[in-house]
Design brief:
Helix content is about 35%, strand content about 30%. The chain contains four helices and 15 strands. The strands form four sheets. Strands 10, 11, 12, 13, 14 and 15 form a six-stranded mixed sheet that branches. The protein has a four-stranded antiparallel sheet with strand order 4-5-8-9, with no helix packed on it. A hairpin with a 5-residue loop joins strand 10 and strand 11. The protein starts with a helix and ends with a helix. About 20% of the residues are buried. Keywords: Membrane, Protein transport, Signal, Transmembrane, Transmembrane helix, Transport. It is a single-pass type I membrane protein.
């Protein structure tokens, strides 16, 4: 009987341990915003929609509304780059359009507020609430669902609308390979944030210079017994003579340029007098 109680207690402790681990992982999992369409998770992996962004207009047009009583409303959405449509949707990431009225465009989202990692492993883009000129407030949340077979993506789940007094909150599920961890190129992989060859060479140069200075000082101090400063600096005579060498080089260059300019001026003047 006591053995059964011990087994049950061990099993209970094990289950509790697993629950704590899982719950702790959920609490710890975050996705820090990089830009409007990218975030870096706490595990170091990146979710980025940059690869499927439309550079000159919305990449996803006419996204249908799921609510049957509002089927005339569709949404145009661009993950990263803002676009403009008509006189109402200016510099936006998402615009609501009425199929029965080409003039009725409503602004929905302009800037990403944050990214949230959900318990099921999906990530939600939470856009900053947008209030239009008529003091009507709209908010948008897009849940990113990972599917390696979907590229660029599928918005078949549509948009579900929830209405509140003077408030419309829109939610959408976007299924794509780019919704997976490192599923598509991130800004650091495909953008200008890569280190250039010049930057790499400068980093290597200064690293070698630092090693040279430290090693040289140690050798002169402990092997050669030099204690005075700045003589303890390696090749001190050479470095001390650099300003003088630079000065001589500048003077030589200026004299050469001046001599060349004078010679050219004299030749051109002589040629002019010959013609006269």
């Amino acid at each position: 009987m006591e053995r059964k109680h011990n087994s049950a207690a061990k099993l209970s402790l094990f289950v509790s341990f697993l629950f704590v681990l899982q719950f702790g992982w959920i609490l710890a999992e975050t996705c820090e915003k990089i830009d409007n369409c990218s975030c870096r998770k706490s595990n170091g992996k990146v979710i980025s929609l940059r690869e499927i962004d439309g550079p000159s207009g919305p990449a996803f047009k006419g996204i249908p509304t799921k609510a049957p009583y509002r089927t005339t409303l569709v949404f145009d959405w661009n993950p990263c780059t803002r676009f403009s449509e008509g006189s109402s949707c200016i510099d936006l990431l998402m615009c609501q359009k009425n199929l029965h009225s080409t003039d009725e465009n409503n602004p929905c989202a302009q800037k990403t507020s944050k990214f949230k990692v959900n318990k099921d492993g999906t990530t939600t883009i939470i856009y900053q609430s947008f209030t239009d000129s008529k003091d009507y407030k709209r908010s948008v949340e897009i849940t990113l669902k990972c599917d390696e077979s979907q590229y660029p993506g599928n918005t078949g789940s549509g948009v579900t609308e929830f209405y509140e007094p003077k408030n419309s909150a829109y939610t959408m599920v976007f299924t794509s390979r780019c919704a997976c961890d490192n599923g598509c190129d991130s800004p650091s992989e495909s953008g200008s944030s890569k280190l250039s060859i010049g930057s790499i060479l400068l980093i290597v140069f200064f690293a070698l210079l630092l090693v040279y200075l430290i090693a040289g000082v140690l050798i002169k101090r402990y092997k050669m017994g030099v204690e005075s400063v700045p003589e303890v600096i390696p090749n001190y005579e050479f470095w001390a003579g650099i300003p003088s060498l630079v000065k001589d080089g500048v003077i030589f260059t200026c004299q050469g340029v001046r001599s060349g300019c004078s010679s050219l001026y004299q030749r051109s003047s002589k040629s002019g007098y010959d013609k006269i």
